[in-house]
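Subject — a protein and its fold

Tokens — whole-number codes for backbone shape
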Amino acid sequence: MSLLENKSLSSPRLAITIGDPAGIGPEVVLKALVDSGIKNLGDFTIIGCKGLLNAIYQKFKDFEDDNIANPEDFSILDIPLNDKITLGKGDGNTGAASFKYLDKAISRTLKGEFDGIVTAPIAKSLWKAAGHNYPGQTEVLASKSNVDKFGMLFVGRSPYTNWTLRTLLATTHIPLAEVSTTLNPELMSLKLDLLIDTLRKDFGIQYPKIVISGLNPHSGEDGQLGTEEKDWLFPWLEKEQKSRSNVNLMGLVPPDTMWVKPARAWYGDGDADSNPNPADAYLALYHDQGLIPVKLMAFDYAINTTIGLPFIRTSPDHGTAFDIADQGIANPTSMKEAIKLAAELCKQRMIN
């Protein structure tokens, strides 16, 4: 029996922010919560503008039968918009509103009112326009939780094989030119510690198998295509392999071949157990190295979860999609998966 089916456990209390109010966040939140398989997973509080949520419900409720939830059926922590907005046209006002929703969710969760947070997407440029200079929601969550060791773990469960893909990024929202100077043994060990702790605490995997990517093409090819692997990455990995007897570390796998086995595990016929040696997690060294393959395989199913926080946080792995925000056609699959994962991880922590 899965954690989510164990009714003897308390229902997790989840705050769900609507993200940028001009984007698809409010729509996908309501579309996710109309699903009976979702709304029974926990006690939900939507954080956002109640008037906007009601307006979106009224606008889209007749598109298909029962495809969007009535906001009146849910607890809403109402933070009204200061000015009128237009769906699909974000600006500094909507950026400021989305920041308020996240800030409120964090403060209430840290006070113990919620077990976790599910965040709809925001626009980083509009945060900046509103005077909030953060790279993204991950960094705000860490800062306001007084956490300096955190990471972005992307999790997706295959609809074909039920195998779970987990990918951690060693570096996140930085320019490509800064990756090689940002990476160092201390940072790699910090991320590996976080990943191992999360696999054990939140996923119940006590003896994980983790694949670690190289940085350069062919993992440097003995210094011919870059020296980072030869200079310090391979020595770092050898030291980690010797000191972690309960963890199977594999690498440094060339970045262009590291994703072959995960792809076979994701798409393969039958159960994922028939796939030769799929790993429990993959450690990618920079943003696109990890997220291009993740989004190719699992775009509608991949969930961003911030690890290292004192509470659970998940988010759909897509943006605000301003271009379709006024059409009622936004796909709620990723939001549903984010809510499912948040509920599952909260319940896992409850039994630890």
Observations:
- Residues 146 and 309 are 9 Å apart (CA to CA).
